[in-house]
């Protein structure tokens, strides 16, 4: 294995240790990741934009500051990929949409500013379903991302680019956004770790809004400790986001380092442990629970009867909010402007621009949302959905009166084939049956890998959910389970991904040309 190959396989925490010890420079680590992107991203297509030169400049600056004895953040010098939903100063930010093609924002989103201030090195922007609407990245206006485990399969969505970049060793860390599962479901299908923090834990200032009462920014990584370290960097109050929580947060990294499940009460959600889930997904989920039980956790069954209505409520609340948030793409202020032949009124230009700039899934949701909010239907649709949302929140409250965390499989199936669900929006929406309730209630959730499904050899994730502001509980149980599984497997799951060697990816790429 070459030096570069070795560097890209390190966890962010281990790479940070090597950087701090002076064994390796940030320029070397950044170059190794840029080389990896150059070698495999033609086949994976995790990135929409790679900012190679700027990343190397940032890395050189960190190396200089370190050499000068400046005290730097724990992750200083470590490369990171950024989901294209977050605006980045001087770098394209499209949210996967044609309508923002060519727009270069004049400022950084707060989570991006924070990672820069902590000395991390942004490598570029990752692919996603247009405006984060989807579970496969196939709704990206720039073509789908491929799952590094099997290039014919989806990497999840909407943040499939971030998850695939991390799974394919193109970046040790990535930022994602999760409105109904967009961090956790891609983590599940790519064998990575994804966390949706408590609503309000991380500022959304500069995040291109999908549904403002649901959106949350969070980490995508290969280890639970790396996710904790990244959450520690990005969480915290921001006066630019009125929903951001003012109270300080305890260290999530400490929760991982002290992880211990003895006496922890874990509630298995009965409604999400059912026939509708792939057999191998349930098998790995139950094996993980058994492992936790053998190490002192108490497993109990809990019932959340209103979760079955969560998807229906989400697909009224989300389109309603999205139709309002996307109204700002009006051809006047950002990106694309299409003028009908021979000119046109402002309204005609706006309409031609939105017609050309938005893809079919975005149009579908704008129409749904506009309808749900229209006079005469508002109470019947949006009003009822809000009532269901309250019932889902109450289900969580009564469950958390009895248990410390809840556990579910993260998603019903392993990675499906590209194209398989593209013509069936409802089938696509059902991927989020286990992840949406957390967004409706604002509670935090983590997904981490628990093995490969026996029937197809593809990764399976377990999801843990905790009460709002108790994100540390997720890092505790996730960190403990990860250690137990690593001991069983004798090494990380991602080392077993068949399509992950540069050689094989290149062969596939050449074969495809
Ligand atoms: N945005 C998300 O969190 C993903 C979800 N699948 C959606 O399409 O809304």
UniProtKB/TrEMBL annotation:
Cellular compartments per GO CC: glutamyl-tRNA(Gln) amidotransferase complex
Summary of subunit composition and partner proteins: Heterotrimer of A, B and C subunits.
Pfam families assigned: Amidase
Organism: Agromyces agglutinans
Name this protein carries in UniProt: Glutamyl-tRNA(Gln) amidotransferase subunit A
Enzyme Commission no: 6.3.5.7
Reaction catalysis annotation: L-glutamyl-tRNA(Gln) + L-glutamine + ATP + H2O = L-glutaminyl-tRNA(Gln) + L-glutamate + ADP + phosphate + H(+)
UniProt GO MF annotations: ATP binding; glutaminyl-tRNA synthase (glutamine-hydrolyzing) activity; transferase activity
UniProt keyword terms in alphabetical order: ATP-binding, Ligase, Nucleotide-binding, Protein biosynthesis, Transferase
């Amino acid at each position: 294995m070459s030096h570069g190959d070795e560097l890209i396989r390190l966890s962010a925490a281990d790479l940070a240790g090597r950087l701090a010890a002076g064994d390796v420079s940030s320029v070397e680590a950044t170059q190794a990741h840029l080389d990896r992107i150059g070698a495999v991203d033609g086949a994976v297509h995790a990135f929409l934009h790679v900012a190679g030169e700027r990343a190397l400049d940032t890395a050189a600056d960190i190396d200089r500051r370190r050499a000068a004895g400046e005290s730097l953040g724990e992750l200083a010098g470590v490369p990171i990929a950024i989901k294209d939903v977050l605006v980045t100063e001087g770098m394209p930010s499209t949210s996967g949409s044609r309508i923002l093609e060519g727009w270069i924002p004049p400022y950084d989103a707060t989570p991006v500013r924070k990672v820069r201030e902590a000395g991390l090195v942004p490598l570029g922007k990752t692919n996603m379903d247009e405006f984060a609407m989807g579970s496969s990245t196939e709704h990206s206006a720039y073509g789908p991302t491929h799952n590094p485990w099997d290039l014919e399969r989806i990497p999840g969505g909407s943040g499939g680019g971030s998850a695939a970049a991390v799974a394919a060793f193109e970046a040790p860390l990535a930022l994602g956004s999760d409105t109904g599962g967009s961090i956790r479901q891609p983590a599940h299908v790519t064998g990575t770790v994804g966390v949706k923090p408590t609503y309000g834990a991380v500022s959304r200032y500069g995040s291109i809004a999908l549904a403002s009462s649901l959106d949350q920014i969070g980490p995508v990584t290969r280890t639970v400790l790396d996710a904790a370290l990244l959450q520690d960097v990005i969480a915290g109050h921001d006066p630019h986001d009125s929903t951001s929580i003012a109270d300080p947060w305890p260290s999530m990294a400490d929760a991982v380092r002290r992880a211990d499940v003895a006496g922890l009460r874990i509630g298995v959600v009965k409604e999400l442990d059912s026939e509708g889930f792939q057999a191998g997904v349930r098998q790995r989920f139950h094996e993980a629970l058994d492992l936790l039980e053998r190490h002192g956790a108490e497993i109990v069954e809990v019932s959340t009867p209103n979760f079955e209505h969560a998807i229906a409520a989400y697909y009224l609340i989300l389109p309603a909010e999205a139709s309002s948030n996307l109204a700002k793409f009006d051809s006047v202020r950002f990106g694309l402007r299409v003028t009908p032949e021979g000119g046109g009124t402002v309204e005609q230009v706006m309409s031609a621009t939105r017609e050309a700039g938005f893809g079919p899934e975005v149009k579908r949701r704008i129409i749904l949302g506009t309808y749900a909010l229209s006079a005469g239907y508002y109470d019947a649709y949006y009003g009822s959905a809000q009532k269901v949302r309250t019932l889902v929140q109450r289900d969580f409250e009564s469950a958390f009166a009895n248990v410390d965390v809840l556990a579910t499989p993260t998603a019903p199936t392993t990675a499906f084939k590209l194209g398989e669900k593209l013509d069936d929006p409802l089938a696509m929406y059902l991927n989020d049956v286990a992840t949406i309730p957390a967004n409706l209630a604002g509670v935090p959730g983590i997904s981490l890998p628990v093995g490969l499904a026996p029937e197809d050899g593809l990764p399976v994730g377990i999801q843990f959910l905790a009460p709002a502001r108790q994100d540390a509980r997720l890092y505790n149980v996730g960190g403990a389970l990860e250690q137990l599984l690593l001991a069983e497997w004798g090494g990380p799951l991602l080392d077993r991904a068949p399509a992950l060697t540069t050689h094989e990816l290149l062969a596939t790429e050449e074969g495809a040309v």
